Amino acid sequence: MKLTDFPKYSPLEVLFIDHSKNDPLDFTINNIILPILQHFNYFVIHNGILLQLHAQNTLLEIDESFKPRRILYRDLGSLTIDNDFRKAGNLEPIISYSIGSDDRFSEEIEYSLRYDEFMASHSFALLGNVLSNHYNINQKIFLIN
Fold it and tell me: Which of 22, 32, 48, 68 is the most exposed place for a label (fewest CB within 10 A)?
């Protein structure tokens, strides 16, 4: 099957789900959201780097069967660095975009912004909107209140 075999103007998430023949919610959670969370957590836990993972910065590499295989992050200009974490892990500090610098918020706020605002509220809510519009899945499960 080729991408041109799918209906015109369907969101990629719908194309992936329909091709997989999996449950839409299971597919989205296991093949998109979980890998994004793992990607985000890897950079936080191993590097003290908070990526700004949202739809504009996060790309999914897909294989020939339209299954997401890898996450690519395309905007290193919007990183937030936890240099206290890096210092505790014997990692070199990265001065730009450092938590606590003049133009940054506190650690708690930065972590919340990166996860709650940019990833969950932007990207996950958009995924939920697609599921709601195309598969009658309640979008509220994707919203952070």
Answer: 22
Tens digits of per-residue pLDDT, 87-129? 999 999 887 666 666 656 677 777 777 777 767 777 788 889 9
Q: Is 144 helix (H, G, I), strand (E, B) or coil?
A: coil
Q: Which residues of 50-62 are buried (b: 16+ CB within 10 A; e: fewer)?
A: bbbbbeebbebeb
- Domain boundaries in the chain? 3-142
Tell me the two tokens of residue 11.
């969101």
* DSSP-assigned states of every residue in 12-79: HHHHHHHHHTS-HHHHHIIIIIHHHHHHHHHHHHHH-EE---STTTEEEEE-TTS-EEEEEE--GGG-
Q: What predicted TM-score, i.e. pTM, was given to this entire model? A: 0.79
**22, 60, 102, 103 from 41: Cα distances, Å:** 26, 17, 25, 24
